[in-house]
Amino acid sequence: MATASATMDIPASADEVWQLIGGFNSLPDWVPFIPQSELSEGGRVRRLQTDDGTVVVERLQVFDHAAKTYSYSFVESPFPVTGYLATIKVEALGEGARVTWSGRFEPVGVSDEEVVTLFGGVYQGGLEALRANYPA
Known about the structure:
By secondary structure, the protein is α+β, with helices and mostly antiparallel strands. Helices cover 24% and strands 46% of the residues. A hairpin with a 2-residue loop joins strand 6 (81-93) and strand 7.
């Protein structure tokens, strides 16, 4: 099982950050390379479309509003992995917040390093876009 993660400190309260990113359908609100998200199955499944037209379908596995975290898995994706489970978590950090986006997965037909680099880049790019919403 391979893992990847990215962490970013944000100069806003954990509550404020969670308000922006805590909805399962909120990725287009803060990730520019995911302009479209549609919910189905009572809000438990989201169909994402990336800016290049790629479609990814994800299922919400765990949602904990009080702990400011949720986890999701792939239903359908073009990525060479199985057993994908990712988590987004917001934690209070003094006056600000620390956001961690992490995932675990089993590569299929590619090396661990290739998919760790792929998802690490996705998570880091997403968190950099999030950080841009909060000028210092």
